[in-house]
Specification:
Elements lengths: L1 E8 L5 H16 L4 E8 L6 E8 L2 H8 L2 H10 L8 E5 L9
Antiparallel strand pairs: 1-3, 1-4, 2-3
Helix pairs in contact: 1-3
């Protein structure tokens, strides 16, 4: 399982356009093969900052999405709206207590 976080900071006047684009494509992203979950989060203190949190069956599934026409189309539409470069992380949970 791959847990993916992406931080996107938009130009303030472009947040509604981003939300429209995302809303039009959310179901297709969620239904992409290998995607278990995707949600959009908004920063409580900066309404121009959004995060996506997604769960993928495998890194191959995530890469297939990133190489897809769907990703190219959506990313191509939202990237010009950025105020800053997007940041992305693939993360693993840290279990407590740690095991040796």
């Amino acid at each position: 399982m791959i847990k993916r976080l992406v931080k996107m900071t938009y130009q303030p006047e472009m947040t509604e356009k981003f939300l429209t684009i995302y809303g039009e494509n959310w179901e297709r992203i969620r239904s992409f093969p290998g995607c278990q979950h995707v949600e959009l989060l908004r920063d409580k203190h900066n309404p121009s900052v959004f995060f996506t949190y997604s769960l993928w069956n495998s890194e191959d599934d995530l890469n297939a999405y990133r190489d897809s026409e769907l990703f190219a189309r959506v990313w191509g539409a939202v990237k010009p709206l950025f105020a800053e470069k997007a940041l992305a992380w693939s993360v693993d949970p840290v279990n407590f207590p740690p095991t040796n």
